[in-house]
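Entry for the shared binder. Reason: the reviewer on the internal report wants the predicted structure included alongside the sequence.
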Amino acid sequence: MNPKAQQWVKLSQWLRQRHQQVRRAGQMGASIPAAKLPEFSDPELQTYVKENGVADADAASLNKLHIATAYQAILQAPASEAEVMKTLGFSTDKSRQDALYAHAAEYTRWVEDEAGRESDLLQGAGRRGRWLQVVGLAFMLILLGAGTWGYFTYKSWQRYLDNPAGAQKGMVKLTIPRGASTETVADLLQETGVLSEKTKFYVLVRYHHYLKNFFPDLQRLGRIRLRAGTYKISTSLTPQQILAVLRKGPKRESIRVTIPEGFNIFKIAARLEKKGICREVDFLRLALNADYSQKVLGWEAPRLEGYLYPDTYRFYKNTPPAQVISKMVKRFKSVFTPTFKRRAAALNWTVHQAVTMASIVEKETGQARERPKISSVFHNRLRRKWKLETDPTVIYGLLPNFNGNITQKDLHNPHPYNTYKHRGLPPGPIASPGQAALRAALYPLKTRYMFFVSKNDGTHIFSRTGREHRKWVEVYQKKK
């Protein structure tokens, strides 16, 4: 701030204090104390003080003079406007700001009137000289008017951007439909109370790419795109904050879904659709695709069965199936540790074979503690090159058309997953095994059991010989 502007600020501060002093004296019915003016070295200020009778002015005149001298300080140092406003207390007082802007407009009109009177005085001068003077004066007036208009337009937009634009009534719910125009969005914002007046907001959105050149804060918003959806939005936000919220989009509520151990790919797809996460048919289209499975896993697999790890997840509504699959497979890979991979290699198994065995153990287990023992039965059968002869694999090969009751005809169906017809492991997993089943498949108990039969209470009884097994079948199954 230059020295001259500082003297105007000093005079304006004194006028403000004198105004408050005179007003208090009037309210209390007391006599007005004598005024002691500060000293000013600038001749212009000395003349101003004398001509305006500053020392003897009443409260109303003192307030007007305070506003006028504040504006003179800004005119003396335009680059220090913010400092002047802050020093004189205008930054936090909107009513005084409005009075200042009104005075500035009146001052501009006075300048224009003075120029007009000068133009009249020049009529007696020479024609050429008069024409040049009039043109020059007119040009100056145009520049002054344009500058004044630009200044107040800029200040008006600055105040608009930095102050709440709504009805100040808390949080409201707002739904913006897909494809809504800027005008429609502005209407909705006004109807719900987020905006008190829509016109300026419409201009802000429509001409944001121009306005951001003048207001740096708008540049941080980047490209403006008002996203459709349902919002819970405060009516106490500034226009810039409203734009930021609508550009980001509505807050999405996540959906909690639990995939139990032993769920197959068809049950997983059905549950995801029921929860509204993704469509069953879209999920299966990817999960049953061999090329896609290899791309996601990094090794060959006919489908993603067994690799969609059973756990509790959170997804958004209408999440793309690829994102759902990616998250579930990533969880599987975190559980199937390098230690598990080394153990599979020690058994001369691929990861795919290990997961296949784990899925069979998972489906045959009634009680968690039996997993290692059931695993030992299947390991013993593979070692002796017996058929695994397990019903869950037969059932899986009939999906998704299995009706819930396995028959003798089903046991003779020669599909690839029928372990009554084919030796060794089936082509792939038949369900999603959990960590305990994976561990049991890789680390079975060392037993000589070759058979097991359900005791109808969730547990099994194990046998080493066919004769012993048939006896227990007679006891627990045929009597049933």
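Summary line for the report: The radius of gyration is 42 Å.
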